[in-house]
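Protein in question quoted for reference:
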Amino acid sequence: MELTLPPWASVLAVVLATFLFLGAVFGRRRRPSMNLPGPKPWPVIGNFNLLGSLPHRSLNALSKQYGPLMRVHFGSFPVVVASSVDTAKFFLKTHDAAFIDRPKMAAGKYTTYNYSNIGCWRQARKLCADELLSARRIDAFEHVRREEVRALVRDLHASAGRVITLKEHLSTTSLNIITRMVLGRKYADKAGVASGGAVKTWKEFRWMLDELFLLNGVLNIGDWIPWLAWLDLQGYVRRMKQVGKMFDRFMENVLEEHDERRRREGDAFVVKDMVDRLLQLADDPNLEVKLTRDRVKGFTQDLIAGGTESAAVIAEWAISELLKNPETLAKATEELDRVIGRDRWVTEKDIPHLPYIETIIKETMRLHIVAPMLSPRLSREETSVNGYTIPAGTIVLVNVWTIGRDPELWDAPEEFRPERFIGSKIDVKGQDFELLPFGSGRWTCPGYSLGLKVIQVSLANLLHGFEWKLPHGVTKEELNMEEIFGLSTPRKFPLQAVAEPRLAPHLYTA
């Protein structure tokens, strides 16, 4: 059958061909000189043809060919990729100040209030550390984490013996912990969303969070080939605008509820949650950088989304690996029985006394790091490293996924071996460049301490309270361990598992 094109198609083809030619010519002229090794770029698209659906793995393969410090082109822009401890330390520590800026991407404009969130605004991180996520404030909410983890085990107990989708339960728990800390109450559960506005059901709320994470991690062509941005070839910008508007309606409703309580209570008003504190700071005329309403919403959105996703992803990967490695699972439950006993649940105070559980968490973060490539940085000034020149305006990516699989650092790096961390001083707080699940330097995740507590106490109690099995007929060899790429890297296929209670029945209903 012959394909008939509409009359305007030939005109559009000529226009696009002209744009492509001009982009190739002028794009090449604009590129700063750089003598780093790397693959030869194609006109216009650069090295996009070398990136698959999992860019961290594609860049890992290229680094084996061109070395731990290489240059690639994403469309019109030169990008330096660091894939070793030494190169990561160069950008994140030694010359942190020279690479402190962040490139402006469409996702930041349309989904984070025009770059008003924690990840785009440097002063926000100090505010988080001092006001919202200080050790004192996190400790004050310990009862919230305890209550929601108990709710999780009750929920799993009610589903005992049945096949469950674990991520759904973990995400519910994480979201309830975060919304109680940040917003003052549960704003969502499986029965529905307790706040009006853009979303009405739990399913819609989960979709909104998942969409936000996906769109903030995609390679949007318009970001890298700016003169094609107006076409929105992948449809990402349209989706960014949609989810941005949905979140804004939700956030406005949240802020209005908090403003109403402040007006109603007057002089008797007491700060109960993080939004209360943010609104209080927004009224402070002496604040060094004005905290606008959009910044309050951007902060709040970041706290909800970031706090929900990372803990659930890590815990799901940990259970997945333990199901593939039953000997490791047996060692974990032996430690829990010996240290905790079978007559109570694990508390946050118990975590320092559970070193093997800690090794499992570290090994999971090494093998299944949530953010395989740290957030991109932008060089402020020309810098030299190992005889190579990195011009000002160059985008830098640190591929921590590659570092976590470096055979010079790790024995049998593709295998799940928590024992490698027994007696090791390697931590996850950003000072040990072999393992950077939360980043390092001035862009370290400000909520890492909270996220770590949620991961530790939830995983410990999941292992303490239940015997975990794969569904009937599924062997450990058949368990699919593929991931998908976005702002986080969750399982491609959510884990299906069966949880059987292993403690006294009365503990699950207490």
About this structure: Residues 293-324 form the longest helix (32 residues). The chain has two domains: 8-99+396-401, 100-369+404-509. The radius of gyration is 24 Å. DSSP finds 18 helices and eleven strands in the chain.
